[in-house]
Amino acid sequence: MIKENKKIERRKLSEEIIQFILISLMIGIFVSAVLYTTSMSIANVYLDNHNIRLEEMQEVVLSDWVRTICFVAGIVIFISLFLFCFGEKILYLISIIHGVEALQKNEMNFVIALEGNDELTELAQSINYLSKSQRELKEQEDRIREERENLIRSLSHDIRTPLTSILAYSEYIKDKEEVSQEEIKSYIQLMQSKAEQIKMLTDQLLNTKNEEYEVLENGKLFIEQMAMEWKSLLEDQFECRMDYEQCDDFRTLCSAQELYRIFDNLSSNIEKYAQPQEVVELKIKTEDGKLVIIQRNHVRTTISAAVESHNIGLKNVKQIAEKYGGEIEVTCAQGMFEIQISILIGV
Q1: What is the pLDDT of residues 296-341, one digit of tens each?
Q2: CA distance 82 to 20
Q3: Which of 68, 149, 283, 323 has the most CB atoms around it within 10 Å of its CB?
Q4: Banded model confidence at residue 204, pLDDT cuts 50, 70, 90
Q5: Residues paired with 241 in a beta bridge
Q6: What gap in Å lies between CA 319 and CA 328, rounded to an integer?
Q7: Residue 229 above 80 pLDDT?
Q8: Are 339 and 244 a contacting pair, CB within 8 Å?
Q9: What stretch or stretches form a coiled coil here (predicted)?
């Protein structure tokens, strides 16, 4: 409704041009007439003062000459006034043309100043709107591309952890001379669990499956199972100590896959950066409506250059924690690394 009112109130450029022409024409005619009258009066006074008498033909010629000169002067004044009045519109039109050229070159950081209230103003406004829309669209595309790249980088990192576990389990079974059926069944179940985890991550990566949230009725049991799996991955290289006595049973709505990712990243960072054969502590507790996971380990004195930075893993954990209204705190002092993860729980 407001736009319609603006269109009704907007002056037409053609009307402004006609107005400029009429004003310039009237002033030109007036000045030409004044010049003719004044010039003829001056000529007559001059002739009278010098007692000069012109013949009829000479008077006609003089009158025609003065009229012609005054007419030319009127035309010059008309053109000058019209260009002066319309010059701003011409300059404004040139700035609009420059804006269109910039738009063609995908230069979106420009704004045409809005002047007047006619079709040129409306055109400039439309170009500014188009430029702004294109700029916002490009920013949105860049943001989506960056988020997509971060997601791919994050999930690719998390896929490696269960894949490494599968390789480790299969290598263990292959190298061990005698393996009982119970051990084989246990490791197959573990590998199947990790394979399903990889499938869920790849589905999320390819957007073929929406993230599933479920209500954990027995949250403590679920956390204990993941903690035991965390221990099974690390106990061959580290002395693992777990403490979840302060973890009360809880019920919450969450994605089990994301909780798996947290523990996978924790175990992965231990394998890469913790000092072998040293104590690795995992403490899980509930307090103030939060699930708190604390992991401590001694930092490895020498880290191979082939080992990638653990920033991606920490970023993944941070994103998941923040998604559930939580946070992470990381400290490293005197060779001891500690990460504390807090997640809001409750339905």
Answers
A1: 999 887 765 444 554 677 888 888 899 888 999 999 888 899 999 9
A2: 6
A3: 283
A4: low
A5: 281
A6: 9
A7: yes
A8: no
A9: 123-154
Q: How far apart are alpha carbons 116 and 122 in whole angstroms?
A: 9
Nearest 5°: phi and psi at 253?
-100, 120
Rounded distance between C-alpha atoms, residue 193 and residue 298, angstroms:
29
Q: Please state, for a pLDDT cut of 90, what percent of the chain lies above it.
A: 10
Task: Please identify which residue in the block is written with the tokens 């073929």.
Answer: 208
Structure tokens at 131: 């430029």
Judge whether residue 5 has pLDDT over 50.
no
Give the number of other CB atoms < 10 A from CB of residue 294.
16
The kind and range of the H/E element at 134 are helix 119-175
- Name the residue ranges covered by the structural domains of the chain: 2-107, 211-344
281 - beta bridge partners? 241, 296
- Report which DSSP code applies to 135: H
State the helix-helix crossing angle for 119-175 and 256-273, rounded to 10 degrees.
Answer: 70
Task: Examine the pLDDT at 4 and tell me if it is beyond 60.
Answer: no
Classify residue 116 as exposed, middle or buried by CB count within 10 Å of its CB (0-12, 13-18, 19+).
Answer: middle
Place 118 in a pLDDT band, splitting at 50, 70 and 90: confident
Q: What CATH number was assigned to the domain covering residues 211-344?
A: 3.30.565.10
Total Cβ atoms within 10 A of residue 144: 10
Identify the pLDDT of residue 340. Answer: 94
| CA dihedral sign, ordered 272, 277, 278, 279 | positive
Q: Say which residue the tokens 């007036």 belong to.
A: 30
d(CA 196, CA 173): 20
User: 180-189, 235-244, 274-283: lowest mean pLDDT where?
Assistant: 180-189
- Residue 305 buriedness (CB in 10 A; 0-12 / 13-18 / 19+): exposed
- Minimal CA–CA distance to 339: which of 273, 254, 244? 273
Around Cβ 5, how many Cβ atoms within 10 Å?
9
